[in-house]
Specification:
- There is one protein chain.
- By secondary structure, the chain is an alpha+beta fold.
- 45% of the residues lie in helices and 29% in strands.
- The chain has four helices and six strands, in the order βααβββββαα.
- Strands 1-2-3-4-5-6 form a six-stranded antiparallel sheet, covered by helices on one side.
- The radius of gyration is 19 Å and the shape is elongated.
- The two termini are 20 Å apart.
- 12% of the residues are buried.
């Protein structure tokens, strides 16, 4: 079983900060009274902070790839689940994005730019996601 560590990338942090700055800038540019603008910005900042903290607790921290291609996702908060479905978004040498789902409805969204992993680990991650076969499909085929 190989383990691919999924570090939090600087690009993802930069995208989150940029998105928050753009939304706050748009709110401040509206022609509303200042108390309404400041209230909206405060609510947005608190909500964004709560979402970011929740993401950090549940974000994928590593992916274990078994010898037969099965996947197990470990989350930064200590949770883990066996992957039963992979919904790929972009799988390219520059970026990997996918939604991984477990048996009990657990899911995790991967967003892994090539700069956040070394070249070999990023290649192994792409191969693991492309070659994944759902365990239910294998059971129906009799293997």
């Amino acid at each position: 079983m190989t383990k691919i560590n999924l570090r939090l990338s600087r690009q993802l942090i930069a995208y989150v900060v940029l998105l928050m700055a753009l939304v706050i800038g748009l709110i401040l540019s509206l022609q509303l009274a200042w108390p309404i603008k400041l209230t909206a910005v405060t609510v947005l900042a608190l909500w964004g902070g709560w979402l970011w903290r929740r993401y950090l607790e549940h974000r994928p921290s590593s992916l274990q790839v078994g010898a037969d291609g099965d996947l197990r996702l470990l989350q930064s908060g200590g949770g883990q689940f066996a992957v039963t479905a992979v919904l790929p978004g972009i799988i390219s040498p520059a970026l990997v994005s996918a939604r991984l789902t477990g048996n009990q409805g657990e899911h995790a969204d991967l967003f892994v730019p090539a700069s956040s992993l070394d070249r070999e680990s990023h290649w192994r991650l792409r191969r693991a996601l492309i070659g994944f076969r759902s365990p239910q499909v294998d059971e129906r085929r009799g293997t």
